[in-house]
């Protein structure tokens, strides 16, 4: 470990974890994909410091972190917008040796990402440095006193942009959804009915899924669905009728019918929903 | 006969196999000649989910065409062929688990007979879930089908050999669990640093032997 290139964790906020692009390809062995919940925000942070998009960074939950960069580093902060001292949101910033970056509470959104040029270089597990909250694979959640190695910047591209336009955090977020695969377990028009009303984001939401509270889609098919493969973005409806939108750490298989799947482009929106937010679904129809 | 394929969002295709034997045969066929568009292949008791790496319509269409051809090929061969090619794993077990006596009582057998029936069951890994490396072993002697514990244990040790409902399993790591513990094995079924990390994979044949 190069003593010069370390991130010292001074404060973590509610939950801070190392995340990269996750560990796809192991779902059949019971391994969740994991990875950054809002993948696009991590990718943007990486681009801003000249890293490949899938390098490991730090995912913060409701901000509140303080990091010291022992050897100095280029750092970028993206995702849920926070007050940042010692660095900048949506822009690369040089943090001098021993300098600190303090991230406040986000004004909107839930998850903020910190990328460092060279990437967080903790030991990978099954090809990924992501902490998986469901299975426990990967590096443990961060705690004050942790020292994280930073990878070499040699050979990386030079940061190309000084600033990236911040993403919008709409006050009325919408998740576009393709129906199925199990919409036929519900009454005719149940998907449309779901799209006609707002759902509230519950406080028991986490990296596994966004738990919603609202009108239950009316189920017409009784009995149990044999366990089947699940995807990120799946809107699973358990017997209590309260939908769960699966995020990065979702179980690879599940036994509740999936009424629809949120489109890839809106997964980041789902990952940024915070308890108390209101969200709507919008129905898309497959073209083929 | 053709198999119904359902769309799962922009990237996923869910093949309805209607049964585990066909799920495992399709899973094996997909892995033997893996389309580059199949980032994940996840068999289940009545389905196989195949997921493309990106939400590209072209990739999913190509995958869909390949799946259709593979399904036809799999439907045209005897299911026993895939099953015969699957590896067999023998797992030595020290019986005498915390629930062995209770399982014996509930099934009206002696503990000896429970062990005899468990070691005589020809298990096949159906699918994995619940935890990395946690394989649902199908083929348990019907006499040994017992419900889970009403209150799960907060921690079940790694290597516990257990039954619940129609399945048996080996706990790949310590975790909470409600399955009934028959014994313990020192065989490592999950090692994240190994390739593949899981000893038991869909289709693997498993025999337990008493030590």
From TrEMBL, chain A:
A Gene Ontology molecular function term of the record: ATP binding
Keyword Lipoprotein belongs to the record: no
Domain of life: Bacteria
Alphabetic keyword roster: ATP-binding, Hydrolase, Nucleotide-binding
Domain (Carboxyltransferase) ranges: 28-287
Record InterPro entries: CT_A_B (IPR003778), Cyclophilin-like_dom_sf (IPR029000), PxpC (IPR052708)
Name this protein carries in UniProt: Biotin-dependent carboxylase uncharacterized domain-containing protein
Taxonomic lineage of the native organism: Bacteria, Bacillati, Actinomycetota, Actinomycetes, Streptosporangiales
Automatic annotation (TrEMBL), chain B:
Keywords, alphabetical: ATP-binding, Hydrolase, Nucleotide-binding
UniProt entry tagged with the keyword Hydrolase: yes
Domain of life the protein comes from: Bacteria
InterPro entries linked: CT_C_D, Cyclophilin-like_dom_sf, PxpB
The keyword Transmembrane belongs to this UniProt entry's keyword annotation: no
UniProt GO molecular function: ATP binding; hydrolase activity
Domain Carboxyltransferase, chain residue ranges per copy: 3-200
Name recorded for this polypeptide: Sensor histidine kinase inhibitor, KipI family
Organism: Sinosporangium album
Upper taxonomic lineage: Bacteria, Bacillati, Actinomycetota, Actinomycetes, Streptosporangiales
């Amino acid at each position: 470990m190069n003593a010069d290139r370390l991130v010292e964790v001074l404060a973590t906020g509610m939950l801070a974890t190392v995340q990269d692009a996750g560990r796809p390809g192991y779902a059949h062995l019971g391994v969740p994909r994991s990875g950054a919940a809002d993948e696009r925000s991590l990718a943007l942070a990486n681009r801003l410091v000249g890293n490949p998009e899938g390098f490991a960074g730090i995912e913060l939950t409701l901000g509140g972190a303080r990091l010291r960069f022992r050897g100095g580093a280029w750092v970028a902060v993206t995702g849920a917008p926070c007050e940042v001292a010692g660095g900048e949101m949506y822009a690369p910033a040089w943090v001098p040796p021993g300098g600190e970056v303090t991230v406040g509470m986000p004004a909107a959104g839930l998850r903020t990402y910190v990328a460092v040029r060279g990437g967080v270089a903790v030991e990978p597990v099954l090809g990924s440095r992501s902490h998986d909250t469901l299975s426990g694979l990967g590096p443990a959640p961060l705690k004050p006193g942790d020292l994280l190695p930073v990878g070499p910047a040699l050979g990386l591209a030079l940061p190309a942009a000084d600033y990236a336009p911040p993403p919008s955090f709409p006050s009325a977020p919408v998740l576009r959804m393709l129906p199925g695969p199990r919409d036929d377990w519900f009454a005719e028009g149940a998907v449309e009915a779901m799209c006609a009303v707002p759902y509230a984001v519950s406080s028991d939401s986490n990296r596994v899924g966004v738990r919603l509270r609202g009108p239950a889609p009316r189920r017409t098919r009784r009995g149990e669905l044999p366990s089947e493969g699940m995807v990120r973005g799946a809107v699973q409806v358990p017997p209590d009728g309260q939908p769960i939108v699966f995020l990065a750490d979702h179980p690879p298989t599940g036994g509740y019918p999936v009424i629809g799947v949120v489109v890839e482009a809106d997964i980041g929106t789902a990952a940024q929903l915070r308890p108390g937010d209101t969200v709507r679904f919008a129905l898309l129809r497959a073209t083929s | 006969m053709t198999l119904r394929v359902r769309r799962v969002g922009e990237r996923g295709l869910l093949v309805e196999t209607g049964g585990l034997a066909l799920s495992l045969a399709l899973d094996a066929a997909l892995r033997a000649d893996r389309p580059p568009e199949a980032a994940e292949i996840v068999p289940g008791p009545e389905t196989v989910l195949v997921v493309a790496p990106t939400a590209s319509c072209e990739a999913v269409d190509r995958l869909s065409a390949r799946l259709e051809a593979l399904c036809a090929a799999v439907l045209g061969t005897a299911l026993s062929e895939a099953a015969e090619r699957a590896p067999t794993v023998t797992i030595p077990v020290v019986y005498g688990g915390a629930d062995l006596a209770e399982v014996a009582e509930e099934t009206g057998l002696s503990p000896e007979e429970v062990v005899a029936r468990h070691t005589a069951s020809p298990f096949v890994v159906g699918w994995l879930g619940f935890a990395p490396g946690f394989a649902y072993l199908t083929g348990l002697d019907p006499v040994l089908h017992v419900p889970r514990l009403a209150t799960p244990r907060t921690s079940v040790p790694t290597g516990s050999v257990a039954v619940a409902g129609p399945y048996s399993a080996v706990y790949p790591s310590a975790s909470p669990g409600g399955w009934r513990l028959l014994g313990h094995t020192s065989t490592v079924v999950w090692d994240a640093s190994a390739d593949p990390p899981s000893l038991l994979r869909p289709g693997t044949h498993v025999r337990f032997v008493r030590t």
